[in-house]
Amino acid sequence: MTRYAYRRFPFVTPPELAGGAGAGRYPVAIVGAGPIGLALAIDLALHGVRSVVLDDNDVVSVGSRAICWAKRSLEIFDRLGVGERMVEKGVTWRVGRLFNGDKELYRFDLLPEAGHKMPAFINLQQYYVEEYLVDRCHDFPDLIDLRWKNAVIDHEARADAVRVEVATPDGRYSLMADWLVAADGSHSTTRSRMGLPFEGETFHEQFLIVDVEMEEDPFGADGVPERWFWFHPPFHPGQSALLHRQPDNIYRIDLQLGPDADADVEKDPERVLPRIRAIVGDRPFEIDWLSVYRFRCARLDRFVHGRVIFAGDSAHLVSPFGARGGNGGIQDVDNLGWKLAAVVKGEVNSTLLETYDEERSIAADENILNSTRATRFMTPKSATEMTFRDAVLALAGSAPFARRLVNSGRLSLPANLAGCRLQGAEGEGAGLAPGSVCLDAPVAEAGADGAQGWLLDHLGGRFMLLTIGEGARAMALPRLARLHVALEGEAAAPGDLVDRGFVAARYGRDVAYLVRPDQHVVARFGADEAPALSGILGGAVAAAGKGVPA
Ligand SMILES: Cc1cc2nc3c(=O)[nH]c(=O)nc-3n(C[C@H](O)[C@H](O)[C@H](O)COP(=O)(O)OP(=O)(O)OC[C@H]3O[C@@H](n4cnc5c(N)ncnc54)[C@H](O)[C@@H]3O)c2cc1C
Which residues line ligand 1 (CB under 6 A)? Predict the structure, then answer.
């Protein structure tokens, strides 16, 4: 265990056992209170949908797992009500430096432009992320029933519901759910019970992860945290290494060990301590956590199987390089939450869930591709791959084209849903294309004392029409909320937002956007075009005959 003060969440006898009543019935049952299960429960609650979350454990994530949370995840966490707390606790970073041996090849800045509420990345241990999500779940006592020490041991999917068998310290019980979401992680028992192939590639390379607590900062005079990655580090010849700072003066060190390393030997502190000293020099430190891991890239062929839906690591798995595992799973939640809520509330029919499968499959493939490429670059499999890799590294110091080929993990970005069936027209003029995620920008509320804030705080959770610039003010869609942004020099009406210098550049002017509840653009309309719902949102929503979900 790390030094993190783990809270043991109490087991409470579930009503099905306490009252001796029959199986309770829930709109949604979620297996797993990891980051994905917890975030989904919150998203559903924000849509007024009740869920029961069943976890076999009674603590948040044990040990050191995810630390890097990308801007898009932070924006989603913010929509769920926990983003600011995470940023406050997390270590914000944006600059990465790459070394070959002791020579710096180049550095990159992940957020070179101003005008975003959320930083490019924070580092925050997964146990804090889960702790904050658990606390947020407690804000919805009538909508989220979070049950610790409730292991799902069986399920049976029927035409109209799923029967779930649960084992607890007080005995077994069953419950019925309209929908079952399997957020039960990489070893998903839901997946294996259903006999679903989880195909992909296993990498034999091993990595040593060591978290050390250290008062003294290794990042130089200004102490601004950065991501440092070495190929062929002088302190660990022939391999790769990564150094990252986390909150509480904890530093993550990843050391590549090779495929033949003996994990037990490598975990011996007598072996680990000199390795760490070689990196941090004579700064005093203490080991907080260490483990040796291998990883896989794999995915389910489909994420929606009737009334059982997979999200997070149960659906797709990547190597940690690029930080696409947890970040990808949080985007699953963003995509699934509003759709499942709309289905549960009877606003649309369940074919909408097919678009979750479609959109998140594309994202999973992209994540797996990037993760696999990074892993290949870092751990070349053949003499040819090694020659290519070393030639790229040799050139990268002086040749910008070679820098683009250096791959120590392409960091998680928002999925682009262009071309998927829910997306509509790209109208005239310039601006964000359908399928893109809306960009944040500083805005103020209309009026002399208008509060300053951020555009994304006003988008999401429901469909809305975003109109930008006076030429778009009159544009409207029936039954749809509308948000108007007045640009510089334009008069603002009550209820409008006022651009603080970035909206026009990012969105264009005199333009309207149909925005999804997950802040993605469905369609863009120029000022001379009449916004229309027909032909957009595809057959899935239209088939329900009820229009756009509220
Ligand atoms: C070393 C390492 C570093 C990583 N770094 C990053 C990073 O920097 N950024 C990033 O985005 N991702 C990272 N990841 C990936 C990230 O940790 C996972 O993607 C994330 O934990 C997935 O969340 P999840 O909720 O899907 O699954 P999990 O976190 O595995 O949660 C699953 C939950 O389900 C519960 N459960 C399982 N079976 C049952 C059952 N039968 N009944 C009830 N409950 C059950 C488990 O107890 C657990 O609480 C890293 C992973 C590793 C291993």
Answer: 31-37, 54-57, 61, 65-68, 126, 151-152, 183-185, 189, 209, 293, 312-313, 320, 323, 325-327, 329
Total domain count for the chain? 3
Q: What's the CA gap between 311 and 329, in Å, rounded?
A: 6
**Average confidence (pLDDT) over 363-373:** 90
Is there a single domain that holds both residue 66 and residue 164?
yes
Please tell me whether residues 226 and 247 are part of one structural domain: yes
User: Which numbered atom of ligand 1 lies nearest the CA of 315?
Assistant: 26
Check residue 197 and give its pLDDT: 97
Dihedral, 450, 452, 453, 454 alpha carbons, nearest 10 = 90
3-state helix vs strand vs coil in the chain, percent to 5: 25, 30, 45
Strands, sheet with 91-93, edge to edge from the N-terminal-most edge strand:
68-70, 121-123, 91-93
User: Are the C-beta atoms of residues 537 and 531 closer than 8 Å to each other?
Assistant: no
CATH code, domain carrying 358: 3.50.50.60
Nearest CA to ligand 1 atom 5: 66
Residues 6+ apart with CB under 8 A from 350: 343
Residue 107 confidence (pLDDT): 87
The two structure tokens encoding residue 120: 């490019």
Instruction: Please tell me the predicted confidence (pLDDT) of residue 534.
Output: 57
Provide the domain limits for residue 464.
442-544
Q: Which atom of ligand 1 is nearest to the CA of 324?
A: 11
Contact assessment for residue 250 and residue 117, using Cβ atoms and an 8 Å cutoff: no
Let me know: does 15 contact 21? Beta carbons within 8 Å. yes
Give Cβ neighbours of residue 198 (< 8 Å, ≥ 6 apart). 191, 298, 299, 300, 317
Say which CATH number the domain at 532 has.
3.40.30.10
Residues 19 and 153 in one domain: yes
Max Cα separation, the chain?
73
Model confidence pLDDT, tens digit, residues 67-97: 999 999 999 999 999 999 999 999 998 888 8
Residue among 11, 60, 65 whose CB has most ligand 1 atoms within 8 A, to mutate: 65
- Both tokens of 77, joined, read 């966490």
Ligand 1 atom, smallest distance to 32 CA: 34
CB-CB contact of 238 with 248 (8 Å): no
- Shared domain for 322 and 179, answered yes or no, is yes
Cβ-proximal residues to 398 (8 Å cutoff; 6+ apart), any chain: none
Phi, psi (degrees; rounded to nearest 5) at 435:
100, -20
**Has residue 532 got a pLDDT over 80?**
no
Q: How confident is the model at residue 307 (pLDDT cuts 50, 70, 90)?
A: very high
Q: Which atom of ligand 1 is nearest to the CA of 37?
A: 25
Domain endpoint, select from 354, 376, 398: 376
Query: Of the residues 234, 263, 296, which one is the last residue of a structural domain?
Result: 296
314/40 Cα distance (integer angstroms): 14
